[in-house]
Amino acid sequence: MDRRHLLSLMAGGIGVAVAGPALAGDDKPAAAVVNLQGVGLPVIAGGRVRNYVFVSIRLHLSRSATMEAVRAKDAYFRDALVKAAHRTPFTLADDWSQLDAAALSRSLMASATRIAGQGKVARVEVLHQAPRRRTGRPTG
Q1: If we measure between CA atoms, which residue out of 109, 106, 115, 126 comes closest to residue 53?
Q2: Terminal Cα-to-Cα distance of the chain (whole angstroms)
Q3: Where are the alpha helices (DSSP H) in the chain?
Q4: Predicted structure pTM score
């Protein structure tokens, strides 16, 4: 991966977007989403760091949450994610170029309750995973 692509991924992770209504006749306000700034997480296997994967994450907010309040806590979300990745790695046994997106989402949802408050984040979506090194797959 070249540096320009990596930097564009990290810069693209900064921002806030609002999802449009599902139907044109829907009078309910649109659910808000917050894109977290990109973060690099380690791939740890056998007690050694084998690779880093840069992830882009989107938080889908509930109707009771405000985008400004959650966006202000971006650093806390990223910090919780990095700490969790070092404590219990999200490493896939057969692929060192990706992380377990389901485990990553569960971990961040658990942290979101503590950081933003109960019920503020409806779900966590892993948008993109970009490995630092595309080689180095584990051998069976």
Answers
A1: 126
A2: 26
A3: 3-12, 67-71, 74-87, 101-115
A4: 0.72
